[in-house]
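Provenance and format

Records in this collection were gathered into a single text stream. Each protein contributes a sequence line and a token line. The two records reproduced below are adjacent in the stream.
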Amino acid sequence: MVSKEALYRFHRALNRPFASEEDLIAAALAEIGGLLPSDRLSCFLRHPRDLVLEHKLSLREGMRQELEEEIHLIESSPIAQLLEGRRQQLAYRSPHPILYVPLAAPLEPGEAARGVLRLERLRDGRRAARAFSAGERAAAAALATELAQSLHQTAVAHRSREQLKRLEALTELTAIFASSLRVGDGLRLILQGIQQHFALDRVRLYLVERSQEDSGPGQPSQAKQLRGELSVDMKGQVRSLGNEVMPLVLGAHRFVDLVLGGAKDPLLERYLETVLHIPLTVQAVSIGLLVVDNLTSQEAIPGEDVGLLRSFAGQIALAVDNARLFDEVQALSLYDGLTGLPVRRYFNQRFQEEIYRAQRFGQPLSVALIDIDYYKHVNDTYGHQVGDQVLREVGRVILANLRKIDFPCRYGGDEILILLPQSKEDDARTIMERLAQQIREVRIPVPFSTAREVSVTLSIGLASYPEDGRTTDELVQRADEALYWVKSHGKNAVASHADTRRPERVEEHES
């Protein structure tokens, strides 16, 4: 039997900081070997997911011994019963005296034991080893309980340190994300940080967005969707989820139901331990969904990690919402709210870039300055609402019919300036005449008028680099001169600056 003094010394030996769980076990086994004569002492701990006890450490005659051993926990087996508390000890006499005692801490009442402590007395030649006495078994149980308690406290302290490190790291990531102000700049960083600090197999982010849709007057111009943003795998590699788009309607997808607070999905309930779905909300408004999982490793996501992730999700949601708001404000400053076309300031920046490219690589470039014919008359006759509808339709047709490399802007009032990279004069003329024809087909309904509708035509002036100018100002001025020439010769036509000297080339159309 171990005395109270010896048990107290054992407690003090373990009640100090250890660098690792293995160091704690090694110190404990060395102390136990001095109190209970044993030829070999071994410690086995339960694997978090598998029904198996993993060998952690063995000491034989004070020396560490490498063993490749696992104890599989078959249901109702003696070892399983020992861990579940249905047995207090297991003692064997063959092939040599072996004693198993559970590592069950009183701090964890009702929970299965963390593992087992095994004490062995090996044969000495032909002489059988002495069996463990009742007093030694009681002492082993007391020492195992003390070790289990130290393991529990060490694990709690380790988890606390890890949680603190994660919280500090994630808070720093959120601050960096918030300061970046742009969604694209921060999402990749913050998702990689979550995957790394929580050692997850995969992290995915879905955000609620409003996608532009064509609609008639008085109808909503936008419809909400849930769109995939990014996914980070266990190697930290990032890929886009942009092709995953779901309408934000109950029943459209289980992820949508989670965002909208719908009924629980039985399929998702089956993966509660390895998959976590966290809706992202700001002021009770859902803005997205964070999905983390360990589906590959099948490791359970610890409860403390679940709590920290749910708490941290609020910071993520706020950072995402602020960043998206900044992007929306930035977009509003770059695009005209009525026509959807870039504003003049944005156009000038792009124009400088294209001029530089044309100069460096010897590429052609043209600009087209457009004026909506009789626009003031439309406003005066039918009102500004109809005038706004004319501008809106012209902007829509322009955006739908230009090439991807072309860049239009609302230049001022009813004037629109279009940059046509890699286009000579004849190319620009062809593009603009096709656009003018598309505009002629536009009809704006005016129910209160006897005409019932308004048609639209354009006057367009062209200028080309380098023939008509070599700077942005020169090209815009030449295009304006060509536009003035068209308007003074009947409107509803396309003319280049060179045409002002060759009026016979100008093609006029009846309004």
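Adjacent record:
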Amino acid sequence: MAGAGVKGGFSYGSTDEYGYEAAENKMHINDWHATILHLLGLNHKELTYRYAGRNFRLTNVGGKVAKAILA
């Protein structure tokens, strides 16, 4: 994500003492995808594809842009 509009030298969130799971600022994979698509200039809510007669989104029904990491 370096040079993509994300703050440099920035750490987002923290883990437990063993590094096993996130403790603060947990981010779902749908949030990660929404943030990457936002940095690419795409609206993740409008990006859909058709499969088996249904419209699907990469971020499913969730996904929030993590504005705290944007420069």
